[in-house]
Design a protein that fits this description.
single chain, 150 residues, alpha/beta, D-tyrosyl-trna(Tyr) Deacylase, Chain: A, two-stranded antiparallel ribbon, 8 strands
Length: 150
Amino acid sequence: MRAVVQRVKRAQVTVEGRITGRIEKGILVLLGVGEDDEIKDLKYIADKIIKLRIFEDNEDKMNLSVLDVGGNVLVVSQFTLYGDCRKGNRPSYSKAAGPQKAQEYYDRFIEYLSSKYNIKVESGVFQASMEVDFINDGPVTLMLDSKKTF
């Protein structure tokens, strides 16, 4: 499982002119599911994201998590995180999970975060063409991979 995590002042997702998810201060998560992902990958990424200390404390050091600052999470599915651009100019998505598995894991990821951490989690719409609007705070952007390839 892969994620791009961005600390945001605000973020929202719009599908066909309708806002499907909106948060204020918190984390925007672009989430990709791999073909060989298991539940342990989902839990690793979810727990890592929630515990990332990427918000400033009173001394302007990044020491606080999204939970510590009372932030929220916006999750957007993004299979293109598995795009392999090493060969040619057209990305290959052969390592991305198929739609059925990807949606199952996407839904489980959202449920896991909201139930385990009692945090507000908003989302986009799986497989929809979405517009994601956000203000990256910092900017702070991190990449995570459950297989720890980077």
